[in-house]
Write a structure and sequence with these properties.
By secondary structure, this protein is an alpha+beta fold. Helix content is 42%, strand content 44%. Strands 2-1-6-5-4-3 form a 6-stranded mixed sheet.
Length: 163
């Protein structure tokens, strides 16, 4: 008898709560919509953070700040270009003779990978000096960034010359 009385009280409270005016009613579709919006907002935030870090790395190449460039690159990173794959040490050594004077990032695209990582692709138009010679170039870039601890780092980057 006590069990059925408790059940009646719970059901009465549930029905009363549902019928009270001014109480928001949340359907399954509304919950999914909110979750979808939150995941898009999170993806947008990740995109902004990753693009900001990519620009920070490019700006470091403008100022010649190899320490900052190195700090934005994961120790186990792999970079790929026309010469093939290279590790962090090889890339940092190579960019020592490289200085951007200007760049632009066009046709930027973003693919969220997880709550702590994402891939960006874009077309870069750049000018600068590479190992004593002025250059102007365009290339397609893919960069995979991940957050390790509280720090964003690039773990993979690939460059293909644009034709």
């Amino acid at each position: 008898m006590k069990t059925s009385s408790a059940l009646i009280v719970v059901v009465t409270i549930a029905i009363s709560s549902a019928l009270l005016p001014g109480q928001p009613k949340t359907s399954a579709a509304a919950v999914q919509s909110l979750e979808s919006r939150d995941s898009r907002a999170d993806a947008g935030s990740i995109k902004q953070q990753i693009v900001s870090k990519e620009r920070e790395g490019l700006d470091a190449l403008k100022t010649g700040n190899l320490e900052l460039f190195g700090n934005l690159t994961a120790d186990d990173a792999v970079f790929v270009d026309a010469r093939g794959p290279a590790n962090k040490a090889q890339v940092v050594k190579n960019v020592a003779g490289f200085r951007l004077s200007e760049y632009s990032m066009d046709d930027l695209r973003f693919v969220p990978i997880s709550a702590k990582s994402g891939l960006i692709t874009y077309k870069i138009s750049e000018k600068g000096v590479s190992h004593g010679k002025e250059f102007a170039a365009q290339a397609y870039i893919s960069a995979l960034w991940t957050k390790r601890g509280s720090k964003w780092v690039c773990v993979f980057s690939q460059e293909t010359a644009a034709k």
